Amino acid sequence: MINKMRNFERYGGRLFVYGCLAFLATLYLVPLWVMLITSFKPLDEIYSGSLIGLPKQFTFEAWSKAWSTACIGTNCVGLSPFFLNSLIITVPSVFVSTSIGAINGYTLAKWKFRGSDLFFAFMLFGCFLPLQAVLLPIARVLGMLHLSGSTAGLILVHTVYGIAFTTMFFRNYFVSFPDELTKAALVDGAGFFRIFFSIALPTAIPIAVVCCIWQFTSIWNDFLFGVSFSAGGSSPITVALNNVVNVTLGRKQYNVDMAAALIAALPTLIVYVLSGRYFVRGLTAGAVKG
Amino acid sequence: MAFRLAFCLNLNWPGNSRNDMVRRTDIKRYFADQLPKIVLAPSGLIILVITYGFIAWTASISLSSSRVMPIYDFVGLEQFIRLWSTPRWYIAVKNLFIFSALYLSIATFFGLFIAILLDQRIRAEGFLRTVFLYPMALSFIVSGVAWKWVLNPGLGIQNVVRSWGWTSFTFDWLVNPNYALYTVVIAAVWQSSGFAMAIFLAGLRGIDNSIIKAAQMEGASQVRIYVSVVVPMLRPAFLSVVVLLGQIAIKTFDLTFALTNGGPGGATEMPSMFMFSATFERNQMAVGAASAMMMLAAVVAIIVPYLYTELRKPANDQ
Question: What ipTM goes with this model?
Answer without folding.
Answer: 0.89
